[in-house]
């Protein structure tokens, strides 16, 4: 019994390892951005989620989705930033539980991509706490960390604010997107990742290379609720 | 999959032609399944199999190159490629090379093909893009193959100068320098017993005499380069080029086997031979000493322009090249006139009107010019300016800038006036507001100074403008007069009906198209606070001052470019066939697609005329 479990665990580990050393293009990436009521996952809530997938190395624009969460309490200051009003929440908000199940379903077997992981991963963990759900173990990549590593290696001095999404995109000559909803920022992050990979080095990076630059593995779990 | 719902994507597509002409439903249909890819600088894009589809550049720059690597087209934000690979499996083997990192939308082939069938405008746009790239491709290939090999095997005797500038070894440096200056050359051959023994160049005079403070009375033997590199007259251009670059010299004496000099080749001769360039032509113009030799130099002008048209130079650039050359020619003739008739008794400005002022001359444009005198001349002074003007205008005519049939030339005493009289002429034209007077005078409102004090010309312009502002009726009358002539929209219907019959219509691109845009631009230009003279600058300025809608201005500029290119191409073809330029277009030489496009171009002019009537004449025609 124990041997069987160990063998299975080893197989999974080996499969994951070989998957990670293949070209990055062979994985599917789930590029996510969230609009929140503030910057602290413990106090604030997620208002909306926007995402788009990268498959076979290109952004599949018609996988893009933008969902509002109905549990969020919206205060005036976040309305100012994101231009989302209570009416939007009423009209477009989905039931919290089904949105999360849908989200988990889509994220499964993909690599999560975010810009600034401490915040986005913190909010994801928080979301898993709001609702009993199966665990989700997932690889993630952070475009801000990748950018930081790249600039450190090139010994480029970056000023304060220079790692914000727009500033990073500027360095690659990517277009300036005036709107800042979750969906636009998810697309902006996906484009940034493609640009970073194109500038990686002579050969195409593997998923492992990307994770080494700025990424990791995380397990989202609801267990502590019980 | 779900329809694309990303505002930034939809916004971009909706603002980019030809997608902007689609309905929102059609845009959604095209966007279904669209992919966004990032291409790195230097990459050659794969357009085979499932990638043989329509691409649209969101941000970046690419080049289309022929299979041999010749440049066919340059693309940037909002430009499309891959159309040939959808329609005909890319029979020319065109390649797309990424110039700058690019974000590129890749559409699904099926959606694109459906739309080509559904929307005619959409299909016309891509067919036009395709045919214009094919045209550019054939030109790129033609220029690829033709010239260099031929030129290098030309015998050197064909391009060397045969006028020998020589001096003996005992001549002084000063005497040699004087001789060189008079002959306008940059080197002198030093001979002894009729054999070449050395060479002295401009640079030698500088570095071996002036820089070291040597005496101008030194004999040449002391400063010359002895036993210089030479070539015999049986050599080829190619040999001369190799010799000169190996020895790093700019002057190569051509001598017989017994060292008797027969000619001289300079680096400039080689360059001139290699390519007839505008800059060299201007240099040559500035060096000629009489009208006859100017005439010889200017006989190359037509060939030069035809070459420029062939090399696909932009039409506005061709216009400025011709203007620069005509301006230089005019100034050179003025200087030669001074040598002949003496210095002028007082200052004057030489001004040009019409196409030379607007810098949009083409092959065979005639001269329109005048003189602005700084004083009222007495009888004797008037006689001086009369002979000078006569000399200049005749000189221009001999050099290929024909006399103006309407006698708007400096040689006509009516257009040789002091500043105050120019002012009152403009006042008369502006205030008379009689349509026929205006029609005849309109050419004077395009004015530019090519010689003398520009400030007094600017004063005349400023005076004319303030008069225009004060006379509310003027622009209205000018607009009504200028819009009497309409673009020949009906022409196409007739053409389609009668193309097989014996009534073969020819289209006058200048009077039925370009002139109408020039007229509109002039009206808007005169309504502006800042005076501009070229048609495109006027339209830009009017858009900046919000006299004209940005879209109308852009359409007119595009129409102007389109017609100008057609006119230059038609002139080139006609010139190569008959030796005479002609602005008439034989529509049977156009494809049905090009006709459709031309029709759209004329429709843009009609829209522009309507907008001008609305703006300046309260809508009354």
Q: What is the number of helical segments of chain B per DSSP (H or I, 4+ residues)?
A: 25
Oligomer: heterodimer
Give the CA-CA distance, first to last residue of chain B.
Answer: 54 Å
Radius of gyration of chain B: 30 Å
Give the number of domains of chain A: 1
Tally of individual helices of chain A? 9
Query: Which protein chains make the most extensive interface, counting residues with beta carbons within 8 Å of the other chain's beta carbons?
Result: A-B, 28 and 27 residues
CATH architecture of the largest domain in chain B: 2-Layer Sandwich
Q: What is the CATH topology classification name of chain A?
A: Nucleotidyltransferase, domain 5
The first-level CATH class name of chain A: Alpha Beta
Beta-strand content estimate of chain B: 5-15%
Q: What is the mean pLDDT of chain B?
A: 83
Strand arrangement in the largest pleated sheet of chain A: 4-3-2-1-5-6-7
What's the short version?
Chain A has 226 residues and is an alpha/beta fold. Chain A has helices at residues 2-21, 76-82, 86-92, 96-107, 117-129, 143-153, 165-171, 182-198, 207-214, and strands at residues 29-36, 46-55, 58-69, 93-94, 111-114, 136-142, 215-220.
Structure description:
The complex is a heterodimer of chains A (about 230) and B (about 625). Chain A has about 230 residues and is an alpha/beta fold. Chain A has 9 helices and 7 strands; from the N terminus they run αβββααβαβαβααααβ. Chain A has one domain: Ribonuclease H-like superfamily/Ribonuclease H (Nucleotidyltransferase, domain 5, 2-Layer Sandwich), CATH 3.30.420. Chain A has helices at about 1-20, 75-80, 85-90, 95-105, 115-130, 145-155, 165-170, 180-200, 205-215; strands spanning about 30-35, 45-55, 60-70, 95, 110-115, 135-140, 215-220. In chain A, helix 5 (about 115-130) links the parallel strand 5 (about 110-115) and strand 6 (about 135-140). Chain A is globular and about 55 Å long. Chain A starts with a helix and ends in a 6-residue tail after the last strand. Chain B has 4 domains: about 5-145, Jelly Rolls; about 155-275, CBS-domain, CATH 3.10.580; about 280-460, 2-Layer Sandwich (Beta Polymerase, domain 2), CATH 3.30.460; about 470-615, Four Helix Bundle (Hemerythrin (Met), subunit A), CATH 1.20.120. Chain B contains 25 helices and 17 strands. In chain B, strands 1, 2, 3, 4 and 5 form a 5-stranded antiparallel sheet that branches. A 4-stranded mixed sheet of chain B has the order 6-7-8-9. Chain B has a 4-stranded mixed sheet with strand order 14-13-12-15, with helices on both faces. In chain B, a hairpin with a 2-residue loop joins strand 7 (about 185-190) and strand 8. In chain B, helix 11 packs parallel to helix 14 (about 315-340), helix 20 (about 470-480) runs antiparallel to helix 22 and helix 24 crosses helix 25. The interface of A and B includes residues 57, 62 and 199 of A.
């Amino acid at each position: 019994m124990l041997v069987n479990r160990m063998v299975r665990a080893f197989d999974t580990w080996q499969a994951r390892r070989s998957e990670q050393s293949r070209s990055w293009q062979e994985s599917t990436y789930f590029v996510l951005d969230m609009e929140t009521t503030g910057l602290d996952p413990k106090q604030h809530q997620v208002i909306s989620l926007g995402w788009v997938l990268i498959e076979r190395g290109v952004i599949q624009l018609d996988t893009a989705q933008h969902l509002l969460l109905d549990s969020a309490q919206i205060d005036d200051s976040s309305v100012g930033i994101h231009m989302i009003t209570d009416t939007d929440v009423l009209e477009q908000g989905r039931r919290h539980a089904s949105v999360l199940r849908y989200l988990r379903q889509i994220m499964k077997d993909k690599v999560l991509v975010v810009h600034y992981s401490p915040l986005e991963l913190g909010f994801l963990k928080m979301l898993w706490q709001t609702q009993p759900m199966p665990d989700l173990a997932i690889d993630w990549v952070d475009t801000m960390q990748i950018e930081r590593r790249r600039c450190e290696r090139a010994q480029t001095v970056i000023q304060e604010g220079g790692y914000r999404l727009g500033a990073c995109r500027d360095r690659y000559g990517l277009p300036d997107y005036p709107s800042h909803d979750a969906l636009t920022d998810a697309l902006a992050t996906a484009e940034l990742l493609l640009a970073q990979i194109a500038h990686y080095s002579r050969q195409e990076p593997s998923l492992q290379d990307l994770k080494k630059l700025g990424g990791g593995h995380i397990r989202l779990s609801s267990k502590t609720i019980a | 999959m779900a329809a694309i719902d990303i505002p930034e994507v939809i916004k971009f597509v909706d603002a980019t032609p030809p997608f902007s002409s689609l309905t929102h439903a059609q845009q959604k249909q095209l966007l279904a399944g669209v992919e966004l890819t990032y291409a790195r600088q230097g990459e050659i894009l794969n357009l085979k199999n499932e990638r043989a589809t329509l691409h649209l550049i969101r941000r970046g720059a690419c080049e289309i190159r022929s299979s041999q690597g010749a440049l066919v087209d340059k693309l940037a934000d909002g430009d499309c490629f891959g159309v040939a690979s959808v329609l005909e499996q890319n029979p020319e083997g065109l390649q797309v090379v990424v110039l700058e990192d690019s974000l590129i939308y890749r559409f699904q082939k099926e959606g694109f093909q459906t739309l080509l069938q559904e929307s005619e405008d959409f299909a016309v746009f891509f067919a036009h893009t395709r045919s214009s790239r094919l045209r550019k491709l054939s030109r790129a290939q033609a220029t690829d193959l033709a010239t260099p090999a031929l030129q290098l095997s030309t015998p050197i005797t064909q391009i060397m100068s045969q006028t020998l500038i020589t001096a003996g070894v005992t001549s002084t440096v000063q005497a040699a320098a004087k001789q060189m200056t008079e002959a306008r050359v940059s080197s002198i051959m030093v001979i002894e017993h009729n054999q070449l023994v050395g060479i002295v160049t401009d640079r030698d005079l500088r570095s071996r005499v002036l820089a070291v403070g040597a005496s101008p009375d030194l004999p040449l033997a002391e400063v010359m380069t002895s036993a210089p590199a030479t070539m015999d007259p049986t050599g080829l251009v190619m040999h001369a080029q190799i010799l000169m670059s190996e020895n790093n010299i700019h002057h190569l004496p051509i001598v017989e086997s017994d060292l008797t000099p027969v000619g001289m080749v300079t680096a400039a001769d080689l360059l001139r031979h290699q390519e007839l360039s505008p800059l060299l032509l201007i240099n040559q113009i500035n060096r000629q000493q009489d009208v006859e030799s100017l005439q010889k130099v200017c006989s190359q002008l037509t060939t030069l322009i035809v070459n420029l048209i062939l090399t696909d130079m932009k039409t506005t650039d061709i216009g400025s090249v011709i203007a620069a050359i005509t301006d230089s020619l005019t100034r050179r003739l003025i200087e030669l006139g001074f040598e002949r008739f003496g210095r002028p008794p007082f200052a004057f400005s030489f001004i040009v009107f019409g196409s030379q002022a607007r810098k949009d001359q083409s092959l065979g444009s005639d001269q329109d010019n005048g003189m602005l005198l700084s004083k009222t001349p007495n009888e004797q002074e008037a006689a001086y300016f009369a002979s000078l003007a006569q000399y200049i205008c005749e000189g221009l005519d001999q050099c290929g800038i024909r006399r103006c049939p309407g006698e708007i030339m400096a040689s006509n005493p009516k257009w040789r006036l002091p500043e105050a009289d120019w002012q009152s002429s403009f006042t008369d034209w502006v205030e008379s507001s009689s349509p026929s007077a205006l029609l005849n005078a309109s050419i004077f409102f395009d004015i530019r100074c090519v010689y003398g004090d520009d400030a007094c010309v600017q004063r005349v312009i400023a005076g004319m403008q303030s008069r225009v502002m004060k006379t509310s009726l003027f622009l209205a009358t000018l607009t009504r007069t200028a819009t009497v002539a309409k673009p020949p929209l009906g022409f196409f219907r007739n053409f389609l009906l009668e193309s097989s019959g014996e009534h073969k219509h020819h289209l006058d691109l200048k009077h039925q198209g370009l002139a109408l845009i020039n007229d509109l631009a002039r009206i808007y230009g005169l309504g502006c606070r800042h005076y501009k003279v070229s048609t495109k600058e006027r339209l830009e300025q009017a858009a900046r001052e919000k006299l004209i809608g940005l879209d109308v201005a852009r359409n007119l500029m595009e129409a102007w470019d389109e017609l100008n290119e057609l006119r230059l191409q038609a002139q080139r073809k006609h010139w190569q066939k008959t030796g005479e330029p002609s602005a008439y277009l034989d529509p049977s030489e156009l494809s049905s697609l090009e006709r459709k496009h031309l029709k759209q171009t004329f429709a843009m002019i009609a829209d522009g005329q309507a907008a001008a009537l609305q703006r300046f004449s309260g809508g009354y025609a």
